[in-house]
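Quick one, T. Sequence first:
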Amino acid sequence: MDPKEKLGKALYHLLEKKHLKDISIEEIVRDAGLKEEDFNREFKSKKAAAHWVYLHILARHGRDILKSRCWSEALYKKFLLYQANLKFLQNLYVSCDIEEIRQSNRRFVRDAYHLMLKKAGADLNNPHIQFATEMVVYGGEEMTMRWILDGMKVPIEVMLVLFQESIPLIISQYFY
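Structure tokens:
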């Protein structure tokens, strides 16, 4: 395993237990079995390292999510991914300014919607489809973040129905 992977794995496990501000670089490198210079070579900051770990999680599972047969299966898989990484995500979300994390998540969701809509024959240049997609991307990201921060108390199956019911007709017609 390369140093970046080791550092990311160490940070992930630490973020499962506490907030980023409560984690020192010394702690990360000690848990990774590396030196501080290794951290400095790989990352500019703890926040940059946390963002890399988040992107790594999305990348590792994103392909499987995007291979889903339908929109609801893709969303279900993403919710399961959140559930599997709940403590990490909760601590990450409250640890620092997470606008970069939110932008990455919105980009991932937007790309997934565009891929599914295009595959179903939707006109991605249609301003109604563009507007509806952006509403779903921003609103869905906000509601998902709140759900995660609340500990995912609402069951995944219920959240899936809530999302299905809230998708604008202009794009939902392509998902069934």
